[in-house]
Amino acid sequence: MASRVTILHTACFLALLHSCFGDVYFHNPKGSNNRLNEKSAARTNANRVFDSQNNNRGGYNVGDATYKPAGTDESLQYRMKYFQSGTFKQYGDGEAQSYLTLEWTNQHGCGGDEDTDPHKQNCNIVLQYMCQDEDVSGATEKLRDGVNTNTQKFTALKKKDENLTQKKARQAADVDVNMAYHETWEWYDKCRNRERCKGLFTADQQLTTNNGLGYSGAIYTRQNKNGNRRGYECPEERDYYPYWHPTPWKDIAILPINMSLCSYHEKESFNVVPRYECLELYVGTKTIRHWSRWNNENDCKTNGGQWTPFYNYLEKAPAYKNEATCKQQTKNGYTYIWGRPLGEYTEQCLVALDAPECKAAPWTRSNHLGNTKGGRASNYTWTLPFFPSGNTKQCVVRIRYNISTDDYDPFNTNSSQNHNKQAGIVSPIQQNPLVDIGAGNTPLQLAINTAQFGRTFQDRSHVFELRPRPSGLEKQRIYNLNVRGKRGNIVQVYPAVEYDFIPNDLHVTTADLVHVQWTGSNTHNNAAPGGDGQTGDAGEGKSGTDRNNIVQLNKLSENFPVPYENSTLWENAKIAWIYHGKKNVSPMDLALNMASSGRYRCFTAKDCPGQKHAKYIFGVGLKMSSTLDDAPASYEGAMLRFNKGTYYYACSRNNNFTNRSQKGTLVVK
Ligand SMILES: *[C@@H]1O[C@H](CO)[C@@H](O)[C@H](O)[C@H]1NC(C)=O
Ligand SMILES: *[C@@H]1O[C@H](CO)[C@@H](O)[C@H](O)[C@H]1NC(C)=O
Ligand SMILES: *[C@@H]1O[C@H](CO)[C@@H](O)[C@H](O)[C@H]1NC(C)=O
Ligand SMILES: *[C@@H]1O[C@H](CO)[C@@H](O)[C@H](O)[C@H]1NC(C)=O
Ligand SMILES: *[C@@H]1O[C@H](CO)[C@@H](O)[C@H](O)[C@H]1NC(C)=O
Ligand SMILES: *[C@@H]1O[C@H](CO)[C@@H](O)[C@H](O)[C@H]1NC(C)=O
Ligand SMILES: *[C@@H]1O[C@H](CO)[C@@H](O)[C@H](O)[C@H]1NC(C)=O
Ligand SMILES: *[C@@H]1O[C@H](CO)[C@@H](O)[C@H](O)[C@H]1NC(C)=O
């Protein structure tokens, strides 16, 4: 292991190799799989933001805030709004955490122990996020989902002596505020103009040798030999983890092939060690250029560049203006470091990240996009970060999944074994090889695509917010209670899932807060084209609309909601925070608000005085349909504390007897 660590900063990292097909889909938060708001079952543009390599049918539309499609008005999209953790480093473990269940399905199996649960392949899963402050300068640089399904444009650099004015013009002409933006334009330009890592095993794939500047860039990989572009994602970074240059991603957790790799990942995550870039200047100036051809220290220095460390960080801490005051900070138990953040060239004060968690992946079966052994989907409980600045962050979460076989030694196969006829080198794997099994010399063909033998899948959420906690709620644990799934029956939504609450069996204490919140789309029509599956959007209420609510049940096996008079859930709930800010919400008004997905706030005008709540009084203004068609598709919700008890609840619209169960259990101890 040690030798692998030492090569990390000098050359690019030697990769393990992996095989096969194995789509991965996020269900909570809802993964986009590159969808935006299309009415079709198949996504419109698989290259919109990132390279998923998933089936065109997967994914969920971006949330709508109201009962109408957001259309081209981004402010009418709904971003899930999770509360950050409190300062749990100060309060201690088991306090002040905000828990969000990340849930996904992966197709080709994962997890398990070699001895007790041998698998047909190994896999690793990497969970990461990126965040941005709300006040980031310039609309074009904002993290966003966009309002159309096009891919951002990109104009390749043609002459390497481009000056800063020309660079800015090229960038401005490419980046469109109406399209999704995760990685930055500079990130992709950097990737394209940097030499690809030549030490990687590429089997018999012929990678493009010229990026337009006379050499092969990091946009060409074994899995993407022609350098196809998806959003501004860097293909080399996408395919390999850990990456050997600084990246905009922060690690949440690594679920590795082999637990013996954990000590390596915990030490080598970019969360905790700097990564290097070669810095060069615009010709004839003192201005640092955002890209360099050189991907290693030796080439960089030989060519007059500065091999420079960059640090990953939780957030910037501009209040501490010099190294000494920065490093002295221990505020809230965090470590502060002095270094360069990606994309900037001056050293500054940064809040350090912790090492990612490293643990075993949940066991799943091969060729089956389903649950783990306990009958639950694969999941990881993310303890949301606490940001000392107290700022709201806009964020995206990403999952990558790849699988390996033992057809050759993954730790010791590199470019020296790339197929090279002239030199007499035969790649250990080749395209659809014919193998002799001795049956009268009749060869059999194996289905091996060397571009996919070692393959990475990905999904990402839409943009969501991480908000600071309301004052007075710094110390409680918060559990997020959300809804997964989309409209349609099982074959229509596949490989997405039908509706359910998540977690649908939640255990908390009387001190904990439960943040109830959901999002949905008004354009989940699941119409043609349907790709590999069925179109149609079987379900209640208006076609294409997702709706959710919460009504109490007496028993999980019953389907009629308890009449309000008999209910206990709301009488036993204390509101710690509610999105509309109204004080003194009665249990009955809370029940109404939850049952109507925010369409109503009060039964009577007396309880909702003033203009602000006027249109949300029961029976005033828009009437609500019994299937919630004119209630908002998303509900920002409330944080509730419950008395001891076991409570059952359902969604009145989607729960459909034998057909579709959308019910949950809440156990309060
Ligand atoms: C995990 O790695 C260790 C050390 O490299 C090795 O001995 C062990 O066989 C590996 N286990 C599996 C399941 O591959
Ligand atoms: C950048 O290059 C263009 C084209 O050669 C030139 O017109 C412009 O003056 C240059 N700008 C700077 C700041 O050097
Ligand atoms: C490839 O691996 C072999 C040993 O397995 C090593 O000797 C060689 O230096 C490696 N080549 C590169 C380019 O990393
Ligand atoms: C995928 O797995 C291979 C083999 O372990 C590894 O080289 C590569 O870095 C991994 N990529 C990601 C994104 O995990
Ligand atoms: C997450 O997975 C574990 C293991 O299968 C399971 O026990 C747990 O209930 C799951 N959590 C949720 C919220 O489904
Ligand atoms: C179950 O759902 C399917 C499709 O939504 C529908 O065709 C069928 O009639 C439903 N069955 C029952 C018993 O409601
Ligand atoms: C159950 O679903 C089927 C198909 O969507 C629908 O025809 C039926 O009316 C539903 N039953 C109820 C009680 O909602
Ligand atoms: C509601 O409570 C009343 C009085 O206790 C009882 O008679 C009735 O059966 C209850 N209804 C339901 C649906 O629980």
Automatic annotation (TrEMBL):
The keyword Transferase does not apply. It comes from Priapulus caudatus (Priapulid worm). The keyword NADP does not apply. InterPro entries: Protein_DD3-3_O-glyco (IPR053320). The gene is LOC106807413. Keywords: Signal. Residues 522-547 are annotated as: Disordered. This is Protein DD3-3-like. Residues 1-22 form the signal peptide.
